[in-house]
Amino acid sequence: MTSSRDLAGLPLDVPPATAKKFDKLGIRRRFDLILHMPLRYEDETHLYPIAALPYGQPVLVEGEVIAQEVQYRPRRQLVVQLEDRSGTLVLRFLNFYPSQLKQLAKGQRIRALGEVKRGFFGDEMIHPKCRTVVEGEPLAGSFTPVYPTVNGLTQPVLRRQIANELKRQLLDETLPHGVRESLGLVTFQEAVNTLHAPPPNYSMRQLEDPLLPAWQRLKFDELLAQQLSMRLAYRARRMGIAPRLHGTGVLAEKLTACLPFALTGAQQRVLEEIRADLAHPHPMHRLLQGDVGSGKTIVAAYSALTAIEAGFQVALMAPTEILAEQHYLKLSGWLEPIGVPVIWLSGSMRKKAKTEAIAAIATTPCALVVGTHALFQDDVTFLKLGLSIVDEQHRFGVGQRLALKDKGQEPHQLMMSATPIPRTLAMSFYADLDVSVIDELPPGRTPIVTKLINSARRDEVVAYVDKTCREGRQVYWVCPLIEESETLQLQTAVDTHLQLGEELSQWGIGLVHGRMKPDEKAAIMKAFAANELQVLVATTVIEVGVDVPNASLMVIEHAERMGLAQLHQLRGRVGRGEAKSQCVLLFETPLSELAKARLKVIYENTDGFEIARQDLMIRGPGEFLGARQSGVPMLRFANLEEDIELLEQARELAPRMLERDQQAADAHLERWLAGREQFLKA
Ligand code: ADP
Ligand code: MG
Fold first, then answer.
1. How many angstroms is it from 172 CA to the middle of ligand 2?
2. Residue 325's domain spans which residues?
3. CB within 5 A of ion ligand 2: which residues?
């Protein structure tokens, strides 16, 4: 006998044109039909007498057409009178085919399914689903599933295909023996049968309840597949070969001697986690998370020193030119005095400088190379790369991260991010990474006070900017995000710069935006860092990583247009020195509900983790996943917020299953993720 496992991967048994439509629904293999679940159900198990029809729910009636009329007012429509023993009902069709005139001719016996509305001339159904029947025709034994579909693929066709497939396949268990029972889950077979062909004793409400055992089983299986594939990806990485990087500690000691501050306990702890990984002969894939301003850069510097002490080069990559430049200045300030060469490479360098940098990368041992994605262009070859560090990793696509990995032998990877991953996501979509968290800010930070101010009071804010400058502090002024047009956004920034220049003429006002030449940008940033400019007008280019401790005020225009992560990142640019810092969020009324919710969250919270958690609740995980989204299959059935318990159970089972019952694990993955696992290895 053929097992369902052999059948699962078979292509659909339909003509190519139909297959194309199924493909749009994500149904490619026969097994995909089994996993195509109803959106809702229709009740054709029960006939209601016309005289006693409930409102507000679809109901089935049966009767004889006693009149048919095509009316032309107010527009062409078909009006049919249906009669049963108890009364009469109007069926109204605002568009109709000639075939319907025949189907609904006087004297025909019809079953109509639809919602009853109180019409002008009594009760009526608009566009009911009608079927010709003979008297006494049996009713459906169970609720009728209604599936998600696409144009040209009717419910009956879908239903037939799915029902056939249910009959044809032996839906054997993929869970190891005893697991299902101990978790209190129904069998897979029972689950899919219940959902596709509900037994008569189920109510509509039960079937649509996410706590229904059948749904729970599907959710669990889906989460388990995700956990298994994440584990496998993780294991595959651990099989890779990377150089063991044992630092001597000599350079680290020198750096510590020069550094004006000591590492926090959290920084020390994550550094030890990183060093332990680097000493292993397998590539590290570690995500270093820390809220904005938590001091990830110095951790990166010490990690780099470990690799350099071991005789290797290190690459550090940032997503924007400004950020990369800041890193370069900072890191060369720390490392060059202790004799470590730091090389700068960016896409915008002049040809000669670039050629020199590329030559240096190919020949300078034990160097730190800092740059943008220019670092993984084809013409860049590292002499001996041991560690690559990617800052703000969520800004890079999966492909870009891969590219750096492919340079030379497999280096260790450290990814840094200030966007905290909420716990449920960390447990699911990021389960293939090791994570270190800096959960403590350096001492002496003053909490940032956030103010929400209606933009009608802009004058007062400008006066406050002036006051801040007089106190010797500096100010960021962030121009609104204009999604529709980059040109418009640029124009707004230029206008704001001019206007503030007039309003605050005694102060130096700079402007940075995305369209400036990198060296112009760098010059402005340098002048601002040196307090030659007191106010920096910027588009959101300063969102990540810019560090000027003397800046104590941030004004954000049209804050209501920005996302939470973005607002939190921007706000984190201040509060980095001893001065009391403030963030003024200017908003324009009226506010949408979403904007209100966001502003409330950012106003009430300073903890990045809490903000991210609330962000996840407001937006759902899809958008949050950003770059990950491109490759990682999304969850169809499970919901990370609701199904946390199932997620935990799946997470516990996955490693055991891979260890003790590889076959079952393979079968389970084949069922749920066939052909999609390779994305997870990115
Ligand atoms: P982020 O984690 O956002 O990248 P940075 O690495 O830019 O943060 O650090 C923010 C600021 O805090 C920098 O000016 C950095 O030099 C400083 N800093 C980092 N660690 C400490 C520490 N342990 N004590 C005092 N200041 C620190
Ligand atoms: Mg940073």
1. 50
2. 250-438
3. 545
